[in-house]
Amino acid sequence: MKKWLELFAVGALLALGFGARLYKINNPIADWHSWRQADTAAVTRNFVKYGVNPFLPRYDDMSDVSGKGFNPDGYRLVEFPLFNLVHFAAVKFAPFKSLEFWGRMVSTVASLFSGLFIYLLVKKHASTAAGLVSMAVFLLMPFNIYFSRVVLPDPLMVTVALAALVAWDRSAKWAAYLLGAIAVLVKPTAVFLLLPLLFAWRWGIIFLVGPFILWRMWQQQYPVGVPGSDWLLNGDHIRFKGAFFRWIFGDRLGRLILGYWGTWPATTGVLNLPKQLWWLVGGAVLYLFTFATGNVRHDYYQIPIMPAVAVLVGVGVVALWKAEETFLKTWAKRGLVAVAMTFMLAFGWYEVRGNYQINNPAILDAGQAADRLLPKDAVVIADYNGDTAFLYQTNRKGFPNIPYPLEDLMHRFGVNYYISTSYNDQTNQIMAKYQVVEQTPGYVIVKLQ
Q1: Cβ neighbour number for residue 5 with a 10 Å cutoff
Q2: 13, 249, 392, 438: most buried by Cβ count inside 10 Å?
């Protein structure tokens, strides 16, 4: 392929990938997996409100998510908040757009670089055509479009890990380990993408995970801010059971990610994958089996395997596109490949289009009312069955449910407002006992005194 044509193809794919991710980019954080996005965005918002302290990130939830007690200071000690620092910088640099917009944009730009890094890796070890197709699949697969414009650290982690692999591929050893260590800090699941760096040098694992271990040691000073996570490994004992294979390889990979028809080029890619890229697929499989329960419970947990999926499909398409003995056989097969890829994208979009929908618009109206009416230091209960997406909309700290008797929460934590979008028995009892501040058919705000 001529160089100018190759550069044009890369540029066109980046433009298409960027354009696809602009779909509903201004959505409030109330779509699919909004609870996890809300927790991430709340850390950045509190950086804006109270100043940046990356060693003590805070969010709005005061609940006991660690199993070690309530969290009145709202500590959020999960991954090191590198994503939030980038997010914060974008918000401060361009405050004319919303915090939610910039959170999605950070992930969007990161995913474009991921596509470029995939192209560079596959081009070197397979072919230019395979690199371009792999890049196209990564940037245009509907599942990945949605999950690479979310307010989560995972897309940035994938980007930095892939950058480390590109540096390693070009013999830039120290740059690779520096980038790898940053990727693990962004989210520790990056180690599954970095297998070549782990095993190529006996000190490699220390350089990669050493900073993260120091972060974990620091976290132990604030145990109530460290959410319980052991259950993600195999909390429901599903690993290696039939249900696990059905959910991961049948439902998630076969239906949601590959849209059924993508399984043909993907399995062909397995048979034609260059040995230099096997570590990418091996790391993805190892990750799926390690975090068995997490991957079954949450589809966003499949974000780290998307580079491997894209490479398999890309290599498979190029292998299937090769000429056969006759003109008729060649173009019949190529026609089927084109149909399979078209159906993969079409059915994939059909499966994920609902992710963009706002699940409950009432929480947006109630949140705006609370932000308008309540004191900035109010402590609220935004009752939403433990989902923090509603609490995030109020722009106040507090609780996403009522974990203890209401009077105890009022006296112990200073809770002074109750907000609900459901007029159930509990809400009606609270309305009857305390002062209603504002009531509409969609929500009610009650002052607790």
Answers
A1: 10
A2: 392
**91-to-87, 118, 137, 148 alpha-carbon distances in Å:** 6, 28, 30, 19
Within 10 angstroms of residue 437's Cβ, the number of other Cβ atoms is 16
Residues 301, 243: contact at Cβ < 8 Å? no
The verdict on 252 and 273 lying in the same domain is: yes
Residues in the chain: 449
Rounded CA separation 189/290 (Å): 10
Closest to 33 measured CA to CA, from 190, 146, 145, 110? 146
Residue after which a domain boundary falls, among 355, 381, 396: 355
Rounded to whole angstroms, the Cα distance separating 13 from 282 reads 27
pTM: 0.95
Tens of pLDDT, residue by residue over 241-264, are 999 999 999 999 999 999 999 999
Same domain, 313 and 368: no
Average the pLDDT over 170-197 and give the result. Answer: 95
Buried-state track 86-108, b at ≥16 Cβ within 10 A, e below 16: bbbebbeeeeeeebbbbbbbbbb
**Cβ neighbour number for residue 393 with a 10 Å cutoff:** 26
Q: Judge if 46 and 189 occupy the same domain.
A: yes
Among 333, 355, 377, which residue terminates a domain?
355
Verify that 375 and 235 share a domain, yes or no: no
389: containing domain:
361-447
Tokens of 425: 């028995």
195 and 311 assigned to the same domain = yes
Q: Are 87 and 181 part of one and the same domain?
A: yes
Q: Which amino acid is at 363?
A: I
DSSP 263-302: HHHHHHHHHH--GGGHHHHHHHHHHHHHSHHHHHH-GGGG
Residue 323 predicted with pLDDT over 90:
no
Distance from the first to the final alpha carbon of the chain? 73
Give the CA angle between residues 303, 277, 186 to the nearest 5°: 35
At residue 256, φ and ψ (nearest 5 deg) are: -75, -45
Number of domains in the chain: 2
pLDDT tens per residue across span 399-435: 999 998 999 999 999 999 999 999 999 999 999 999 9
Q: Give the neighbor-by-neighbor strand order of the sheet with 435-439.
A: 397-399, 379-383, 417-420, 444-447, 435-439
pLDDT digits (tens, 9 = 90+) for 25-77: 999 999 998 999 999 999 999 999 999 999 999 999 999 999 999 999 999 99
**Whether residues 350 and 366 fall in one domain:** no
266 and 370 together in one domain: no
